[in-house]
Amino acid sequence: MTLTRDEAWNKLALHTDPTLEDLFSEDSDRVEKFAKRLELTTGLAGGDADCGILFDWSKTHLTEDLLTDFEALAEAAGFDDMREKMFAGEMVNPTEGRAAEHTALRGVGLDTSVEEADALRERMKLLTTALHEGAFGEIKHLIHVGIGGSALGPALAVDALARDLPVVDVHVVSNIDGVALEEAFAACDPATTFVAVASKTFTTIETMTNAQSVLKWLADSGVDDPTGRVIALTAAPEKAVEWGVDETRILPFAESVGGRYSLWSSIGFPIAVAVGWDDFQAMLDGAARVDAHFRDANGRENLPLRAAFADLFYSRIKGAQTRAVFAYDERLRLLPDYLQQLEMESNGKSVTVDGHPAGPTAPITWGGVGTDAQHAVFQLLHQGTHLIPVDFIASVEAGDTLDAAHHTILLMNCFAQGAALMAGKHSDDPHRNYPGNRPSATILCDDLDAMTFGALVAFHEHRTFANAVLMDINPFDQFGVELGKEIANKIEKGGERFDASTEALLKAAGLG
Ligand code: F6P
Question: ipTM of the assembly?
């Protein structure tokens, strides 16, 4: 019998609460059932042999009965249909009247969109190769200006993948605070610096102001034709032309690619420049592998969907208001920032697709790196009063070449935290008591190469989409960011009065 959404949610809420300890003692096959591997190499060029990712949800409260009831929710929510629509390039973002075609950038989607993306990527490859081969003179540095989705993905990928001897030294600058740009200037030689201006709309005030300041810095440093050093990465090429960029140095991407899903498009130019084309392509291939899995696997076998089941169990059924992500890998130190935009800008909504109240939506995403975070915030995870589902992310292969002790200690600590959160430890002294029964999932990569990195990011994109479909919200718009921008514009223009507090602040800063 097919349930309605409400009936499916009500059924989920009726589940009893076995402890994690009970779940393990009742089922000796629990790990086998709740830890699943995704192989990444099958049929794809560019990856290392036998590379994959293990997703272990055994230390969460998911049970087979819960999975069955979540599958009923997915059916009630029309999940299969929505997924098909997304891959078919249909309009899945109704408030903006757009498709969401980031998977086409990886080769999975509507044929015409994939062909268009391939052609644009070829153009990007030519420009990247030209830059590497010296067609623009000797280029050692790239300053990439962009913000939000036009910066977070590139910053994360460059930080993760271009650690040893980057082909070109890339600096991603997003903040309008000039301190950020000055830091980049201090690290770059203007004579050998190129500039990427990344903005889907090519109107964002922070990016355009930063771009102007980079041009001024180049001009002040004696560079003859500063605009000749600029490459524009945008879905609004006509605006880049107006701004003064030569058409041959504009790398466009499709309007149907959302900002926070755009690192696979020309917005990823700095990634290709830093890591080289082959690794950029491997990153896309890893994402394509996850796309194929997400498109073809059903119900609980679909790993991003299963992750969404766990997310929603805690956020909707158990009332968790946050979820934490700890990367036990220094190369992924920017991942929590990236996921904050992906998850909170996508699913931080209050209304359903039809505009009705949505109930609790995205929890607050936060996190950090292990082991640092253990000595800072883990106290609260172990003994605090909040329910916080945690994801641990690590790689079996080390990112460093030092004594193996470093990586061994890193991994042992990662696994120890999950074990401690689950088991707890009883003490008659309440201050020394660890309640335990605290959930965590572990995502363990064989190796954090470019392909695995792409897969990891794509997994989170699809997990976010799956959460949205089950909650009946549109993950692809972001109207919540507009009001602040509007008021900032009004303040800049002048002539308007604001609330007394804002007026007083403007006055105190000499702006009123
Ligand atoms: O303010 C939010 C936002 O619109 C993001 O969604 C986007 O990634 C970012 O601003 C930057 O926009 P653009 O790429 O158009 O400069």
Answer: 0.98
